[in-house]
Amino acid sequence: MIRLTGNTLTLDDVHQVVFSGQKVQLDLQAKVNIEKNRQTVETFLKEKKIMYGINTGFGKLSNILIDEVDLEQLQINLLHSHACGVGEPFSEEVSRAMLLLRANALACGFSGVRPALIERMLDLLNAGIHPVIPAQGSLGASGDLAPLAHLALPLIGKGEVFYQGKRIASQNALQQANLQPIKLKPKEGLALINGTQAMTAVGVLSYLEMEKMLYQSELIAALSFEGLQGIIDAFEPAIHHVRGHKEQIEVAARMCKILQGSKLTTKQAELRVQDAYSLRCIPQVLGACWQTLHYAKEKLEIEINAVTDNPIIFTDEKKILSGGNFHGEPIAFAMDFLKLGIAEVANISERRIERLVNPQLNDLPAFLSPNPGLQSGAMILQYSAASLVSENKTLAHPASVDSIPSSANQEDHVSMGTTAARHAYMMIQNTRNVLAIELICALQACEYRGVANMAKTTRKFYKRARNIIPSMIKDRIFAEDIARAAHWLKEADDSYVSERWENTK
Question: What is the DSSP pairing of strand 134-136 with strand 160-163?
Answer without folding.
Answer: unpaired
